[in-house]
Amino acid sequence: MLRDDIVALLAAALRKAQKKGDLPKFDPPAVAVEHPKDASFGDYSSNVAMQSARLARMAPVKIAAAILRHLPQVDYLAGAEVVHPGFINIHLNESWLARQVAVVRRAGPTWGNLDKGQGRRVQVEYVSANPTGPLHFGGARNAVLGDTLANLLAAAGYRVQREYYVNDAGLQIRKFGESLLARYAQALGRDVPLPEEGYHGAYLQEWAAELVRADGEHYLQMPRAEAITALTEWGVQRTLRDMERDLGQLGVRFDRWFSEKSLYEDGAFGEVMNILRGRGLLREKDGAVWFTATALGGSKDEVIIRSNGTPGYFASDIAYHYDKFVRRGFDWVIDVWAVDHQGHVPRMKTALQALEIDPARLTVVLYDLVKLLRNGKEVKLSKRAGDMVTLAEVVSEVGKDAVRFMLLTRSNEATIDFDLALAVQESSENPVYYVQYAYARIASIFRKAAENGWQIDVEADLSLLVHPAELRLVRRLLMLPEVIDLTVARLQPHHLTYYARDLAAEFHQFYRDCQVLDRQNEALSQSRLQLAAAAKEVLGRVLALMGMNAPERM
Question: CA–CA separation, 32 vs 74, rounded Å?
């Protein structure tokens, strides 16, 4: 990345200044550069001189001047200057900038790719809602976050697996089966109450009617335990089919749907129990088996096996992560969880420590709630089910692109107000429309060029790109690698939406200020066509990273 090249230049210049005696010997701080908010201050700025002042016992402006005296001349730098109280501002060479249009064009859809991951295997596990009914719209944020992170990690050079953890074991799934049996019996005229703390969703009545049409009284003729098992399996599979369909309409896919039950069927849970027992980290109390997390610094001990002999919720999580790290050998695991699960993070880290797995290899991305609004009022109930708003309903109303973009517009930790009216508004106030319209506008330029007989010259003279709007657009195109690096470093994909809006804004301004197709100046037009093509490539790439379409017409 250009940013890293500049960091290396400044670091080398600082060391050379020390070697030549212009600066005293000290262990220099890490050099960092950033883009100044005011473009008049240059393309990059560094405060390394101010960070070094205490160490060097010199004024920051003198340190900065010493660094600049040893800054080598390179083709992409136009110059550098010291600004009080000690900033080093870097200006890029504008002729070099113009030539980068060809670099972006040659890279095509790989522009922005990094080798940060160096092929390391990372698993991203997301959504993982209990398979007990339709996916609530609140789960859409989890889906979009996880899927976009997976896209970004792949672009950064990681080998990524996308996984959905199917909670098909335990008490909740049994309550689901019992609830479905009760609704099934009611559909056949039986007076059977729903179980205590059962599922009350209207969808179960629809499914029960479906079962009656297909199988009549078949499940009532079975022993109750067998009927619950059979209907639980039917309900889980029905839910998963619907989830896969609904998530697919959102553009979300998975490489694997991992069954919780398999942890008990293939011996993973038994292996974990043997490891913990062998390390003296299990004890029995009140008829239950406890993991002594406090022995490893945890805040409290945790139940692994309940007094009734069934594994606790935490037991499955330990076995699942053992399977991820030990059995399948992922180098890094990222779990996307709702913020109300934040208390579970340190527990999970302690469990990894108990298994002698470096807890740093697990990252949990937490996200906050989504509030659905219509005409300024919160929407809590579904038109169809009456008890919740489903993902499928919202995608059907506003489209997957609006859902994805709007759910990426804030940092993971911030709540989101999702405005249904704004999501479909065709104006610059709607960021989804604004960004996609920029792409469609570029496509229209090339359609018009073809209609008017323009032959596109890929060898156009890029040195003709000197207008401020042209160069601002080039600068923005060159920022994509940095944006990908930032989003992966922080696991915060909302930076993509900011970049997309800024890139769209730069293109709209270029389109306003610079006539692209001008028969009176064909050489300049050919150069601007190449710039437009590069912008189209990069904007399309950003939309793809966010899982959105790049429309040729709007």
Answer: 19
DSSP 8-class letter at 452: T
CA distance 425 to 220: 51
Residue 386 is predicted with a pLDDT of: 46
Separation in Å, CA 520 to CA 182, 187, 302, 462, 526: 78, 77, 78, 18, 12
Q: What six digits make up the tokens of 541? A: 């790439």
442 half-sphere exposure, CB direction, 13 A CA radius: 28
Q: How many domains does the chain have?
A: 4
Is 120 within a domain? no
Q: Within 13 Å and on the Cβ side, how many CA atoms surround 366?
A: 11
Q: What would the two tokens of residue 269 be?
A: 């849970």
> What gap in Å lies between CA 425 and CA 341, rounded to an integer?
35
Domain boundary among 367, 391, 411: 367
pLDDT at 381: 60
CB contact at 8 A, 438 and 432: no
Of 222, 249, 276, which residue is a domain's last? 249
- Rounded to the nearest 5 degrees, what angle is found at the Cα of 197, between the Cα atoms of 193 and 201? 75
Q: Is 23 left (phi over 0), alpha (psi -120 to 50) or beta?
A: beta
Residues 6+ apart with CB under 8 A from 369: 138, 338, 339, 415, 416
> Do 215 and 297 fall into the same domain?
no
Q: Are 220 and 211 a contacting pair, CB within 8 Å?
A: no
Q: What is the gyration radius of the CA atoms in the chain, in angstroms?
A: 29
268 with 145, same domain? yes
Q: Alpha-carbon dihedral of residues 183, 186, 188, 189, nearest 10 degrees?
A: 180
Is 112 part of any domain? no
Q: What is the CATH number of the domain that holds 352?
A: 3.40.50.620
User: DSSP string spanning 501-517?
Assistant: HHHHHHHHHHHHHS-S-
Alpha-carbon separation of residue 331 from 114, 117, 399, 505 (angstroms) = 18, 10, 36, 39
Residue 215 lies in a domain: yes
| 44-46 vs 33-34, strand pairing mode | antiparallel
Q: Where are the alpha helices (DSSP H) in 408-521?
A: 420-423, 431-451, 468-478, 480-490, 494-513
Provide the domain limits for residue 340.
128-165+254-367
| 44 φ, ψ (degrees, to nearest 5) | -140, 155
Q: Which amino acid is at 292?
A: T
Q: Where are the alpha helices (DSSP H) in 45-137?
A: 48-56, 60-69, 94-107
Q: Are residues 457 and 506 in the same domain?
A: yes
Residue 474 Cα to chain centre, angstroms: 26
Is there a single domain that holds both residue 85 and residue 152? Answer: no
Instruction: List phi, psi (to 5°) of 97.
Output: -55, -45
Q: Which of 335, 329, 319, 229 is nearest to 265 (CA)?
A: 319
CATH number at residue 509: 1.10.730.10
Strand runs labelled E in 295-399? 302-305, 332-338, 362-367, 370-374, 377-378
Q: Which residues of the chain have pLDDT under 50?
A: 383-386
